[in-house]
TrEMBL record:
InterPro entries: CARBOXYPEPT_ZN_1, CARBOXYPEPT_ZN_2, Carboxypeptidase_T, Peptidase_M14
Signal peptide residue numbers: 1-29
Gene Ontology biological process terms, A to Z: proteolysis
Naturally occurring in which organism (per UniProt): Streptomyces calidiresistens
The protein, known as: Zinc carboxypeptidase
Family affiliation: Belongs to the peptidase M14 family.
GO molecular function annotations of the record: metallocarboxypeptidase activity; zinc ion binding
Length: 447
């Protein structure tokens, strides 16, 4: 197991986040969802279970398992950790799969964290920034750094919440002709550490401008886009009741079913539903929706990315979609086991792998092509690259395993685990003007 790298969090960032975390519950209630996320507790049937499935050791076996409608959360040499509803778990057991439910650990019985810390791996929703607090924090930062940050609403969720994007540069209010890099977060509701990652990046680049030479150079030569929460309805539902609900999807009802939600990361149009990498069952955590881009949150993201095509050229050159957990850096394609495929030649694969490995060397994550884990279809990174030609990576953040907290590691790791990705983000930004330079072929970059 890799030892997590340590990092720092700026005093200004900590102060802004502390201010946001001090918001009253009344402010959070202002973002209450129509399905009663605040105060109302989900029934037992609505909270999916977490299971270890033993005897699974290959990408093919993992793909077959995922095709039964579970989401694979973490991979070990001979087992996987999955999320599944009780009906799916029962069906898998009847098929001969060895499932053991992973229940929340008792804090006093837990070993020390792998980094040597002495904290419990359990957490509570209040340890993470809520959607209302996130909004307040973003507004505070934009107000404090008006020249470096520009906030815009790029669309709304199914339940009508704002999905915001923040543009950062040395003159953020002006759309400049520069390479653009997009960082998206919180596509899956329960992955709250990714929203903390977004807030960390905004703080780090605002406070580092004029102080840190690399940050200053990037702010002077790039346009950085940050989407802190792509799934605000799911985030509120998972967090704001006071108890985590292990919720992954959005909160969009499904016609003809009592099951709620579409997996946004199986809903993109590129190779949607092509290859057994998503589910047709609305109750599944990997339900791909009735059609590509049927989820409003998916359309918000794709419409925004398409809007960055100016003069026939996509301005966004590189992208990271932050997820949890497993400590991985993944690149396309996810829909096929083949290393290269139509739309991904050997030079392009070499670029993905070279920059991916450079970033992994900085944060200790494991770099690999997405399908080396298991087949997925309709994913954001496949769409970003296959449809838009954007060099797109998926980061699976801390922890490595479910035993370290899974989707809900303790709030005490937030500063360390967000700062852990600082160097990786800078590596991508520095390569974003000509990714082919990483393999010694800058002549392949278009001008």
């Amino acid at each position: 197991m890799r030892t997590p790298l340590r990092g720092r969090f700026t005093a200004t960032a900590a102060a802004v986040l502390s201010l946001a975390l001090a918001l009253t519950l009344g402010a959070q209630a202002g973002a209450a969802s129509p399905d009663g996320a605040n105060g109302a507790r989900a029934s037992a049937e609505e909270i999916p279970g977490t299971y270890e499935v033993r005897g699974i050791s290959s990408a093919t076996q993992r793909s077959v398992l995922a095709a039964h409608g579970v989401s694979i959360d973490a991979v070990d040499d001979h087992s996987v950790t999955v999320t599944a509803d009780k009906a799916t778990a029962k069906r898998l057991r009847s098929m001969g799969y060895l499932l053991e439910e992973i229940r929340q650990a008792v804090p006093d019985a837990l070993p020390q964290d792998a980094s040597g810390g002495d904290f419990s791996v359990t957490s509570t929703p209040s340890q993470y920034t809520s959607y209302a607090q996130m909004t307040a924090t973003v507004n505070s930062l934009v107000s404090r750094y008006p020249n470096l940050m520009h906030r815009q609403v790029i669309g709304r969720s199914h339940q009508g919440r704002d999905i915001i994007a923040v543009r950062m540069s040395n003159n953020a209010r002006v759309d400049q002709n520069r390479p653009e890099v997009l960082f998206s977060h919180n596509m899956h509701a329960r992955e709250h550490l990714t929203t903390e990652m977004a807030l960390y990046l905004m703080n780090e680049f605002a406070t580092g401008y004029g102080q840190d030479s690399r940050i200053t150079t990037m702010m002077n030569t790039r346009e950085i886009w940050i989407i802190p929460s792509l799934n605000p309805d799911g985030k509120v539902w998972d967090q704001d009741s006071g108890s985590f609900r292990n919720w992954r999807k959005n909160r969009q009802p499904n016609s003809g079913s009592t099951a709620i939600g579409t997996d946004i990361n199986r809903n993109f149009a590129y190779r949607w539903g092509c290859c057994g990498g998503s589910s047709t069952n609305p109750a599944s955590d990997t339900y791909r929706g009735p059609s590509a881009e049927s989820a409003p949150e998916t359309r918000v993201l794709t419409n925004f990315v398409r809007s960055r095509v100016i003069g026939g050229r996509q301005q966004i050159t590189a992208h990271i979609d932050f997820h949890t957990y497993s400590e991985l850096i993944l690149w396309p394609f996810g829909y096929t086991y083949n290393d290269t495929a139509p739309g991904l030649n050997q030079d392009q694969l070499n670029v993905f792998a070279t920059v991916g490995r450079q970033m992994a060397a900085s944060n200790g994550y494991r770099p690999q092509q997405s399908s080396d884990l298991y087949i997925t279809d309709g994913s954001i990174s496949d769409w970003m690259w296959g449809d838009q030609g954007i060099w797109s990576y998926t980061f699976e953040m801390y922890p490595r395993t479910a035993s370290q907290g899974g989707f809900y590691p303790p709030g005490s790791v937030i500063n360390r685990e967000t700062a852990r990705n600082r160097e990786a983000v800078l590596i991508l930004l520095e390569n974003a003007d000509c990714m082919y330079r990483s393999i010694g072929k800058p002549q392949l970059c278009t001008t």
